[in-house]
Amino acid sequence: MPTDDSPLAFLTGATGMVGSHLARRLLDEGWRVRALIRPTSDTALLREWGVDLVQGDIGDPAGALTPHLDDADYVFHCAAMVSDWAPLGDMIRVNVEGTRHLAEAAIACGRLRRFVYLSSMVVFGMHPQRNLDESAPLIHTGDNYNETKIGAEEVVQRLMRERGLEAAILRPPYIYGPRDRQLLPRVLENLKAGQFRFIGSGLSPMSLVYVGNLVEALYLAATHPDAAGEVFLVTNGDEITRRRLLEILCEETGYPMPTAHVPTWLVRLVCPVFEGLYALRRSAEPPLVNKMRLKFMATPLTYRIDKARRVLGYEPESGTEEALRETLAWFREQRPNLMPDAAA
Q1: How confident is the model at residue 15 (pLDDT cuts 50, 70, 90)?
Q2: Radius of gyration in angstroms for the set of CA atoms belonging to the chain, rounded to a whole number
């Protein structure tokens, strides 16, 4: 049980998948946990666990955040606007300015041991990515999520150089696990609607990260003395093809395995057309075909975690296939609406 002398961690994004798993891990380690939440957030689980909840907005000026951090030992910044279609101004406010405000408030608190920023492999752009490591250049694509995550990393790096912020940056690929609201729900919804189509052969490999593995890396990035000032790529340490991913989903849920394929060249050709039309219409919904979805479905995306292993002692506890099956067991119990009608 945490005591008054236990380390205090301040979390953003605690009602999301990564943040909630991180909160649980820190509590199990005997830490105190304080979370920044919006008035509309579902905080039932955090309240049940005894997390200290403070209302606010990551877009608030640093001065508004400082009182919540004045006794914090660690800050984990997991909140972000993740979207393939949100307006640039909204994403700058949350992803870039929000990171700056939080980091400046952390510096002002005076007792901070480590600021851990959860970035993303999206900073590497849209091109094929095979066995990249931390030395790979950041690629600006013009897409809002890519641009704002690069911008947020630049904020953290600048504050490390100019104001002595002791920070570590983690870059995960696509994340999945219990309480996933992004990756697996979208795929399962497409399977349920009979709309899933492979782009290309489905044999392009990708690296994923299970939320339990990522939380371990976040904890190590905060507590390991050699993590300060460093950037780490974090995956499950293996890779999987899109076809194998779908095979596991179908095996575990009972959905029929998709057989339809769309040529990659055709999708690449029509992406700018769809994106342009939706932009002209000022659609709030993303087009069915866009560059971010093409990247997820067909682009080779594999990464090396040698540095995290060497510096942090990080070793993934769960491989990709094992963790997928565990996650789908959670979905069958907690999200039966995403299962075939016969299984619901």
Answers
A1: very high
A2: 20
Give first-to-last CA distance, the chain, whole Å. Answer: 38
166 lies in some domain: yes
**Alpha carbon distance 187, 294 (integer Å):** 14
In a domain, 95, yes or no: yes
pTM: 0.95
**Within a 10 A sphere around the Cβ of 106, how many other Cβ atoms?**
26
What residue type is assigned to position 133 of the chain?
D
* Domain limits for position 31: 8-180+208-237+301-318
CATH of the domain at 143: 3.40.50.720
* Spatial separation of the C-alpha atoms in residues 341 and 344, rounded to whole Å: 5
> Per residue in 125-155, pLDDT tens?
999 999 999 999 999 998 899 999 999 999 9
pLDDT score of 342 more than 50: no
Do 21 and 46 meet the contact criterion of CB atoms below 8 Å apart? no
Does residue 243 lie in a domain region? no
Structurally, how many domains does the chain consist of? 1
CA neighbor of 109 nearest in space, from 77, 68, 140, 150: 68
Helix (H) or strand (E) holding 52: strand 52-55
Domain contains 212: yes
Rounded Cα distance, 169 and 119, in Å: 7
